[in-house]
Amino acid sequence: MSAPPDFDTESPSAVRAAIRSGAFRGFTNTVARGHVQGNLMIVPAEHADDFAAYCALNPQALPLLGRSEPGSPHIPGIAADLDLRTDVGGYMVFRDGELVDTPREIATVWRDDLVAFVLGCSFSFEAVLQRQGVRLRHIDEGSVSAMYVTGIETKPAGRFGGPLVVSMRALRAADAIRAITVSQRYPQFHGEPVHIGWPSLIGIDDLARSYGGHGLTELHDDELPVFWACGATAQLAARQARLPLCITHYKAHMVVTDLPIDGTAADPSFEKEKTS
Amino acid sequence: MSAPPDFDTESPSAVRAAIRSGAFRGFTNTVARGHVQGNLMIVPAEHADDFAAYCALNPQALPLLGRSEPGSPHIPGIAADLDLRTDVGGYMVFRDGELVDTPREIATVWRDDLVAFVLGCSFSFEAVLQRQGVRLRHIDEGSVSAMYVTGIETKPAGRFGGPLVVSMRALRAADAIRAITVSQRYPQFHGEPVHIGWPSLIGIDDLARSYGGHGLTELHDDELPVFWACGATAQLAARQARLPLCITHYKAHMVVTDLPIDGTAADPSFEKEKTS
Residue A173: its chain B contacts at CB < 8 A? Predict the structure, then answer.
């Protein structure tokens, strides 16, 4: 067993500071669970408007939480002290669509023409699901949800396009029903699932072969696979676009924001239900 | 092909009049679809409070829409001209828990000590589901949803108790997800499903053997079985209680009320979504 962390794991700013100092290197799905987390996508300014249009056309996969000014690694609207060059636990650097590096910070790669986007992530609704009594076995087992590339095509914009990526959770029936009713209240975290039950019907031939090779992929006999649209869709689109430079977060190391999750439900009846 | 009906099939009072006159003898799941339909349960007054308590303890299966005064076959709160002795398309009469008759009206059976209950029915949310684009194959095929007795026990009250009965709809994944998010807004029509996917996990060994032997029971390869709590739960409870007299509607011939479905959504965001 590792030693308990010596920072406040529920404070977004403390989590970011621990990431920045190197004190915390884990997946972010178990920390700052009361606050929104997001996918990171950084592109050159000349491609930023096309990417924004691509997000707007595919909002279930790519719900936009924030966008930086050109050259700025900050998005004050989502976290005052956030520095996107150092505050994410890992990065992937792509050049011409090829992964060239997975650094722990990107200060030396940063350029004055880069624009950063933060997109909603299912980690945010996982915290809500657990508070509502839904069992998320992948978290119980210290893992993350598995991702898959589907046969569903996104709506293209400019150079951006390609297949929808989804995240899968193995859920018992009652939990699947609850997860559907709860997640649909959070369109900014992908909303309700895109599929349940038959992976082959959305072009997934083998659950064991997840995108990136990580996450919980084995179903128990009483579990159904439930699939949500996933922000990793942006990674495939950016690679397919063969941008000269593109930087994303490293898998399961998300942007931790100061936005409280509770204030973001689309449905006013949520608060009532949550406390009942 | 049968001749088209010569009454306004969308008017609850016209449907009731057609049932009363014998002009309409069909299932009620295709008529008066903008208005709430309900299960009928008639018991002697001495058992009425116990039955009401049983409903209150099991609201997902037995959501109470209305209750008559002792001896009255009318419930003005749900339909001004309703006469429960003549306005339901068929009845089942039980004595000491045994089915003894299935008459077309119950004027001669009616007694001054009887109390009628009307309980929410999934037929009401089926109309909503279809308006939201969900395909209900059993309706397309002129059938009704199949019912099953589960291994789930209800909470008992007085002499009333027994297993939960469910209705099953065969739905493609996207429709199943939509049906879950829509139906949960209507707790008075059973709310969200109680199960999806694996019938055996709720004590249903063979989908082909439905309760009463009617309804669509065969799944296509791309369909999931989705199960909702069902008002027929009351029938089993009343039979198990071995009441000296108990009268219910005959299968798929429901009480047609004047209550508009649209005014009953629990979620204020529903109207927005419906018109988008």
Answer: 195-198, 201
Domains of chain A, CATH where assigned: 12-119+242-261 (3.40.1640.10), 123-229 (3.30.2040.10)
CA angle B252, B12, B9 (to 5 degrees): 80
Using CB atoms, pick whichever of A181, A196, A267 lies closest to residue B176.
A196
ipTM given for this complex? 0.79
Residue A116 to chain B, least CA–CA distance (Å)? 32
In this predicted model, what pLDDT tens digit does every residue of A176-221 receive, in sequence order? 999 999 999 999 999 999 999 999 999 999 999 999 888 899 999 9
Collect all residues from A whose CB is shorter than 8 A from any CB in B. 173-174, 176-177, 180-181, 184, 192-198, 201, 222, 224, 266-269
How does pLDDT run across B214-261, given as a tens digit for each residue?
Answer: 889 999 999 999 999 999 999 999 999 999 999 999 988 999 999 998
pLDDT at site B247? 97
| Predicted confidence (pLDDT) at residue B4 exceeds the cutoff of 80 | no
Residues of B in Cβ contact (< 8 Å) with A175: none
Neighbours of B122 (CB within 10 A): 26
User: What's the pLDDT score for residue B75?
Assistant: 97
What's the mean per-residue pLDDT of chain B? Answer: 91
Inter-chain CB proximity B193 and A184 less than 8 Å: no
Say if the Cβ atoms of A197 and B174 lie within 8 Å: no
Structure tokens at B245: 């007299």
Specify the pLDDT at position B271: 38
